[in-house]
Amino acid sequence: MTKFTKFFALIAFLVSTLIFSNPANAEVVGTATSPSNIIQVNVELDGEGRIMYSVNRFGRQLIAPSLLGFLMQDTGRMERGFELTGKTTATHDETWEQPWGERRFVRDNHNEVKVNFKEKTGAKRALNITFRVFDDGIGFRYEFPNQGQTLISDEITEFRIAPPTTAWWIPAGEPNRYEQLYRRTPLAEVTQAHTPITMRTNDGVYLSFHEAALVDYSGMWLRRTEGQVLRAQLAPAPDGVKVRRTGPFSTPWRTIVIADRAGGLSESDLILNLNEPNKLGDVSWVIPHKYVGVWWEMHLDTKSWNSGPKHGATTENTKRFIDFAAANGFRSVLVEGWNLGWDGNWFANGREFNFTQPYPDYNMRELAAYARSKGVHIMGHHETGANICVYERQLGAALDYARDNGMEAIKTGYVADAGGIITCDEPGREVLMWHDGQRMARHHLQVVTEAAKRHIAINPHEPIKDTGLRRTYPNWVSREGARGQEYNAWGVPPNPPEHEANLFFTRMLSGPMDFTPGVLSLVGRGGQKIESTLAKQLALYVVLYSPIQMAADLPENYAKYMDAFQFIRDVPTDWHDSKVLAGEIGDYVVVARRDRNSQDWYIGAVTDEMGRNLNVSLGFLAPGKHYLAQIYRDGNNADWNSNQFEYVIGEKRVTSSDMLQIRMAAGGGQAIRFKALD
User: What is the pTM of this model?
Assistant: First the structure.
């Protein structure tokens, strides 16, 4: 871009901002302020009857007046000519308990304004919009109150970010779904992004844009239209109808989390609070835990998913992992490649998968009994090859088979390029859909609810993004939805040292991730170096939250580092509380979490390619109590590139009044257990 082009782009942005900061004849028709008077939302109607909203924080504008509305497939634009027909306000303050999560108790404290509109002419369509304003952000959604069919081509939902801003983002509409490396650019260089997208204004305010409660609706991308203006872009549909609904309904919530520091984004519960409470009743059968599995061998190409001499999912090999799990306190063993259908070209195909028929060298009944005798469970795996026609036809039988063989959880998979999901809702006709379109939102919820009837938890890979539905359906325990550990086996490039510090402040803001940490061998396929120190692999169990966590490496590799492996054995997966002690997006993060079932605390710290020396307060520990800090850190000469395996394990008695030094090598990390002594 030339200097002149940049100059005129800046002028265009300033003019656009000026126009929408002072819309002609705009009238404020609704206002809501957060409980502590930190954030204010104004809803306006301009002289043309266009609906807009703006967001101020401490009196300073963060979101300039931004348009709201829709493009309809059959009835044109819903954008102009509206009049106000009603308005209601409400306040809400409650504390609710999660069955599992980053923290046990969640406070939902917000103020609400609901504004009702109707077109003055034409079809006189009605549209209601509800805004909820929290001290740490806002959420708003549209409500269509009328009966009949609604066909949505797209939304006219804008986010006009007022101050100059930097963004961390991945592009939407690309072949590799969400599995991409995060980019850091000026917001004015964003093209089309997945959410969550994270931002920092030049004067230090942090924002995350996402959505909550994505039910029976297409996922929202954000497309930059000009300057710092982002507009909702719904995931595509083959016939152009991105959302097809009948009767009254509400859209997902469009959300903005706002914080003074990067860690405040992670500590927000706004997304969960915008979801409905648990619909499943007693979910004590959803058990957070750690697992191992027949998995990493395949990514190393020493074993295969398909049948033959390299087949990994054999009775003998699975028993080896069951024995290892039983000896080390792991609750389950993931087995991939156990069922018919892996031979041949299954990628984006999946026509041959059978979810109740094992390969001849995999005796499911024998293994289920053997696992039960050891106090271990098989974790099922249902790879669909993105063919949901085949999977949905077998879904009931597949879940019954899993339940009857003692499976508490199933990992599903939808391997295909973006836009490559195979559906067959019309008899005899296959249609390709997107991973995050309305059809897949329906599909994933169908799998989760059918699994719940059988007391099975679901962990999808190549999934639809997380929007907090784990609150409503607590058996939706985790998912992938980002570039995970397997890219360290064969990715070109592998995940760089900054990757996990990026994930924490971007992807992880949507919910738990099955990253599959703990590869202590630090080597991938063909000797490819994993760009991490050994200590960092331990820290990931605390940093990258999931109620189910895999110890991804091979048993023989853990045997080489048994003293370090002890941290993986000890660290829980369910937490009473979580706090971000320090961090900056893509640079480093230090997280403290308290075990839900004891007084013990844990710290996980990771850094990028820069070594760091941080002093953190232990004020999160219980006052008056003494703890033994069991510290797993990088050695003094450790480095991700030249000395990955040097680590030191030490102990120190501490209290809440102490400061602790967190020393991390380049590409390194630190993991600490604070064992309560009294």
Answer: 0.95
